[in-house]
């Protein structure tokens, strides 16, 4: 499109444009002088190499100086395409490498990946692995039940009668303020020696088990001592299990009393703050101790509930939510005269991490007002549980009511909704210190198969918000063997440092009877668990035969991934499982939704789809073809999938039986050969058992060479497949150096390096000195350029990565390179595969100058065309760079080359940061498409507290009037306040505290968060056309065209004369986010299936044990004593607490 004719001295039209002469009028600047680099300086005419044989013809121009016409710019684009193609043909060596592979055809075999057979074999191997753990679990559970049944309860048992290894003893001895140090523990605690075991990533002792007891449980209580007594016999079973299966990891018995006995013994990992670990709140224990739950929590927020009592209720609800797993469903409502949900959730929702977070935040906003209306609260709860139009657990149904007390029993509500079948259990919680009659609350619980609890203070919250699991366990115990089914958990972080694990769980039942002819005991003793590290499961999957972009994954009934290359949580929370949905691990689409549903349903299947994938560096999106194959893993709730690109159907397997050839090729790995053959990086793989790993590739290569001098590639301690392929690829890439690279002058074409990377794990960079600036991952399968080249046809440009927050590239001091790579496709008969990627590294500054010349109107190599006052020509990217912007942008929207010298240090940045106006126009004209997604595994710096200088979080602060009022000193509020102050010495973090601070690693500095990611990729426009950025007086013409056989977009545009159109700026960098709106997501929940078993009813259940608490008024004498002690600065030592359910006495 030509602009109107203009004459010299005339200004550009338009009232807002600044008058300035048109380019071509008066003296013209030369093409510019290139800044010196580390390479040899070359005259500008040498930038057009001999291979560009096309005539440099001037494009037809308008009658005056004009914006380049479309066919002119198409001509420039063809010259750019030919230049890139010519360089890659000469230096890339794609064709020559194909010939080398064919010449060495006798040294390798072509093997086939048969997806169905592969996935079935891996599923079978995983099933066998887990089955061995199941057998160990059953032996432990049976033994535990028999040991407890044979145990004789001892009322007079003493601490000195029990000998065991207390896992927290060492940490407590190191802490002079420890309660046990002050009290002087009478138990005979063993002192053990430990040895480092890489399997456990810890120091262990195989001769003993360790015991961990929660901080808020008194170790010397009769219940705990009896528990320690009978569980001691489990140690022999632990050791026998290990003898039968040496691969066993942690074997754990979690008792319903809170005691944990685990094997082998290892010291407890004490956090920097108070240790709040309680096995009964671990994901694996919760899943194994009861069937799935449908829970409605209702909270009394009438006017009588205020101050500390309301704080206690809020904390209690949050603790209650932590007892729920992803198999459960929940809603939370507040009530006074009316009932209403505390959050935006209007029905039961899955108790996953994100939904529970919404509840916890909403609960903090509850305000006390009005009068108590139990009827409104219970009617709301029953309506929630009767709603059958939503997804829910359809198992244990329950209502949890938190209140400070009341007189109404709402019998009419129970008669209407719950009697006579009593399918909904009711649990009532009397919160705070008060003088109300609690009989109605007890009656509600007892009349509805529930339990009544009291929470007078902070110390009672945790224990009383988890005891309800004992009641839910009754039908399981009474079901007997039918309920003895192994369940496998979601992925979660092991508390002892093993990393990500899954756990097989099996409930342990109390087989005793209360007396001769009495009913069977219906208490659950605890849960037995055995850990399986994810790494052990990964070892059963194919390592390198699937290629760089093939992988195995597995999901559970919730759709959460058990295995997936994108399962990489940056931080983990002890209290929550790692729940990454398959559709969040990949870019979601309808095909993947169908695959996920089929896998959850336990079906087999195969499907080829076109889908989008993120690059490894998460900067690019590629549209690719993938084959998905899946089968269920029998005897588990898992399903296994295999993903293969079509080009990974076949792979090479080296067959280097000639030992002389092995030695010859191996010599090319020696650093002494690098000067002539180029530098070699080897992938840091597990080639042999005794090979020492190192993050430094030079050191790793040294370790590898030293080991190879002691063993052969055929040694039994080595992976022969990996070693043979590595040595073969060493020889093949050396032949590429010999045939192509060694005789070429890289400087002629402004190349910094040439390189080849292979599936076998070799990356060869030539010349050797170029390795000093090589920053790509030495593992080709983890290198973004390698994986993208396999997925894309043609030449893939990769500019250096630049963050907008970092300083620009320092071109004066360093030579900056742009990677250009392409896959080598090899056809052997009817079998096609891509075993390698080759490429070149362009000198940025030299190619920027070359780019200007190629996009110019030169008619002679030595002399740029100049336009005088009477000339008829078009602007070009060289002569008119003051008025014309010419750039190459890659498919992710990142700047690759520019004709503007001042933009060279911005190469690699998202183009919107360079020219926001132009990038927005490219997006609006469909040259680019945007893809937004969320990263749920990110880690963020902790937010600074917003209450510095204020009172401690969650602490009720009485007013001056309160202190002056004698009645207040004798009130329940004062009593509860003093309890809070005393307990706060230990449990200060319970009120709205971050559990990660209490239970996390000692050096927790980051927390899990959600990050929003935005990537851009080429849209549907393939044509070349001109258009205008309509911006009034700031309008700009531009032309855009894709370069064939590359991932580049060639853009020519008028330079902006004003910045009035800079309103819209596209963002590409990752930003912190709250994620998608949870209130909208729950309206369209993803498909899932709960466990196929449910034990929520048994006709023989004895519901008479339903809680018999007692409310007591505070003693004025005690209050005065406490106050005096506080004033004297002598805090009283808390009395030993036996926070164990009374019915635990066996």
UniProtKB/TrEMBL annotation:
Keywords: Calcium, Calcium channel, Calcium transport, Disulfide bond, Glycoprotein, Ion channel, Ion transport, Membrane, Metal-binding, Signal, Transmembrane, Transmembrane helix, Transport, Voltage-gated channel. Residues 31-41 have a biased composition (Low complexity). Residues 294-472 form the VWFA domain. The keyword Ribosomal protein does not apply. Residues 1-41 are annotated as: Disordered. One of its GO terms (cellular component) is monoatomic ion channel complex. InterPro entries: Ca_channel_alpha-2/delta, VDCC_a2/dsu, VWA_N, VWF_A, vWFA_dom_sf. Pfam families: VGCC_alpha2, VWA, VWA_N. It is found in: Membrane. Belongs to the calcium channel subunit alpha-2/delta family. This is Calcium voltage-gated channel auxiliary subunit alpha2delta 2. It comes from Gorilla gorilla gorilla. The lineage of its organism: Eukaryota, Metazoa, Chordata, Craniata, Vertebrata.
